[in-house]
Amino acid sequence: MHEKRPGVRRLTVYAGVALTIQILVLGIWIIRFYILGDQSAPMLGIDFAIFWSAAKVAVEHGAASVFSPEWMLPMERALGLSDYSAWPYPPTFLLVVLPLGQLPFGAALILYSVLGLLVYGAVLLRICRGIDRGYLSLLLAFPGAAIAIGLGQNSLFTLAAAGAALALLEVEAALAGVCIAVLAIKPQFGILFPLALICGRHWKVFGVSALCTAVFVGASVVLLGQDAWRAFAAFLPQFGTLAVEQGGNMMWPGMPTAFALGRSIGLSVNGAYLLHGLVAAPAVLAMAFLWAQRARFELRAASFILATLLLQPYVMFYDLAWLILPMAFLLRDGNRLPLSPLEWIVFALAWVAPAQALLSAYLHQYLNVLPIVMIALLVMLVRRHLAMTAVAPAYQP
What we know:
Layout: H1 8-35, H2 46-61, H3 69-78, H4 91-97, H5 105-127, H6 133-140, H7 143-151, H8 155-168, H9 173-182, H10 193-200, H11 203-224, H12 226-245, H13 248-251, H14 258-264, H15 269-292, H16 297-311, H17 324-333, H18 341-363, H19 370-389
């Protein structure tokens, strides 16, 4: 039986109000832009417009052309985008979105959004088994999902791949490896999986994921050509310099990272990277410690997500949809060791982080506190592991 906790009914009401507001905002967004034709309203799926444009350009002019403003800008303007938006993704992601370019934009956007919600929901249903039902409303109303849908970003797909890989890690190693390979669409978000798998001694998953990733990349070379990868390799340093290192108030307020914080307060590029390293290195070490110690699955899984986010100098506010995973794992771990009042405060700060980061991005003022929140969450995970191992042997899966 689940332990009764105070305030659950009140939390459910608050979560219901938050979810209703999000649905209303998205509905008004859709009506104003797509039905009333109000071009001053935000465009629902604005980032997906870039994905769809890239798919069309790749079909008509070749995959390497997606990295050229000459071909991308006219396609984007035809959809209502006023300024050129670069395509900074590898050919593996282009291969995935290529079929959507065969559909009209509206139909492609609907299909893409529905698929994103389906995989997101399916993974959450799996992870949320055993969580007190009273807390499920908190996860359902988490604003990160609404932000990802509103922008048409790929965050729901990448978090679903990572979440599925973690959920299947100890029960279906081969399928877990396939899910890890899916992260080749945004490879920086899978970069810590090899370390985690080695520390956790998940050799079969490691082998399957390496093989499937190689097949995925190889398929993109065969189907899209080597020129696409050459163009991507040439474009990526330019994007890193302009959007990340020199992004200014147009980019840094929407990047909830230690690097962006450093640049926003006037640090040089090298100084900001140093600050970022001082945050990222302990985060990765904490994750490696929990995996090597075979800590409880929930703690290991949550630490992987947090370390992955803290490691990236370039994470945007829409990527914070990933925070649903450590929050769900923490609620699961709460069945063994109830969360303290201080832990609930950190949990609440993580819950509002996507909305707060969105506000920071649109105000063009760096207001993010997320690096501190994620560090606090990691400290919580290590403390929870040590608290249990002080009275019982380390968890053995």
